[in-house]
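INTERNAL TRANSFER SHEET
From: sequence group
To: structure group
Subject: ATP-grasp domain-containing protein

Please process the attached sequence and return the structure record in the designated field. Keep the field labels unchanged so the import script can parse them.
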Amino acid sequence: MSSTLSFLCISTYFKGNEFLRACKQAGNKVYLLTNKKLEHKPWVRAFIDEIFYVEEKADGSIDMNEVILGLAYMMRSRKVDRIVALDDFDVEKAAHLREHFRIPGMGQTTSRHFRDKLAMRMKAEDAGIKVPMFSSLFNDNDIFEFTQKVTYPCVIKPRSEASATGIKKVYNSEQLWEVVHYLGDRRHEYLVEQFKPGDVFHVDSISLHGEFVFTRSSQYLSTPMEVAHGGGIFRSVTVPIGSELDLALQEANAQVMKAFGMNYSATHSEFIKDHETGEIIFLETASRVGGANLAEMVEASSGINLWREWANIETAVAKKEEYTLPPVENNYSGIIISLTRQQYPNLAGFDAPEIYWRMNEEYHIGMIVKSESRERVIEILNDYAQRIYQNFHASAPVPDKPTH
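Return from structure group:
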């Protein structure tokens, strides 16, 4: 194998610059396949050898036959050794292309477990992992049986959308059937599951050869679903490091990754700690770095950049080389993000010395704080949440489709 490897990175959303940079710095050729409408985004072009664009159709989808033809033409003159999906929506595309061109990495069956929420539920349940009570929406009798056993409320959610888009909450069987009928011919793309009140956590990890090399557990103080549906302020904070809770979350995450056949990647998993029973229940996972600037929050507490280390692991695996994780710090960090009524909110007064990162986006306010004290992080987040709510906060209706 030549010492220079070629990576085709797929990102149909604007993200993954840090991966692209690290991949190039590791001595690889880096190709990026992205959406034509993202052509003018600030990609790290100095670290990308070539960019290929794909046009999306009117419904937002991408014609995979077109992508295969384009890639086949490109591969006449260029080698592609590895394909990496940088966003949730690209995981299946990457698996499809790997299988077609026989490129090593995660195939379609395994990738389904990291994209399709129904496949996740079924695989986890088979492996004895706790999941909310759920049902597919294929068969009327199965749905009826589910309505007889479940305690409401329930949520009906798309099997393959990222984040909290397209989720409907129902409080009785009449409402459930109403949504099923409303979905019509698309109902097979959804599932229904019991909504469990509890604290929601995310576990961000990097794995290699089926083992975790790094993990950080955090707790949503306002979950993505609450924010999307209730117009709240998004917040998350590191879980007490090494605590019983931290170890329980890491153990649950390890069970999921083993059951799903994860070999190497960055992963972002979500769990709920049931208020009633105290059990850790698996919600969902993704074979990518978490969104909503959670990577920056993890880096603030640990010193580990998930994008960079994922790129280094991809390179090490492809070259059959040893991989060493940089030293890990054990600080605490928290994130707060809100939509604002103002295009450019005035941030005077948000000046705690613990601020590690600030969001620079129109109609948004966002910060990550870092401290040796978890209590201090929570104190700042609570103070800032109150002030943001009073002076800046705006809420937008939840979209039916994810937005770029």
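Handover comment: The two ends are 38 Å apart (CA to CA). The longest strand covers residues 211-222.
Transfer complete.
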